[in-house]
């Protein structure tokens, strides 16, 4: 009987870790805090080795302990890089989520002077320069480039100035 049939949970766990390592980990933009602080293998590599060597059920307590140590390593790195030691991980994650939302919003709506697509729907309130133009800018036809000073019927002057309908 093939090994993957004899131990389906173990095979599934190893396959899931392999998928994570190949497809998700390279795209997430950061690496394992435990590996950065202490060297050696990252948590996914550690988990894979433990499952392969000990089996899934005996490896789980070790993997759980490693994840806890990784969290502590993340705390240490955060403080070493000038972060507020009083913030909990939950608060830091909330701040990071809020920053990612702001960044996505900025990418989608862009700065009034850096818009390339000139599709300003839903972005008027995010761009102070255009907020004063209100509905005229929101429903403008034709010239939607705020950097040349006009958004539809609203004369916005230059990017440093304010809007005047």
Output the keywords.
single chain, 165 residues, mainly alpha, 8 helices, 2 strands, 2% strand
What features would you describe in this structure?
- This protein has eight helices and two strands, in the order H-H-H-H-H-H-H-H-E-E.
- A hairpin with a 2-residue loop joins strand 1 and strand 2 (154-155).
- The protein has a two-stranded antiparallel sheet with strand order 1-2.
- 56% of the residues lie in helices and 2% in strands.
- It has 165 residues and is an all-alpha fold.
- The chain has helices spanning 3-6, 8-24, 33-38, 43-54, 56-80, 89-109, 128-131, 135-138; strands spanning 150-151, 154-155.
- The chain is globular and about 50 Å long.
- The chain has two domains: 3-86, no CATH class; 112-155, no CATH class.
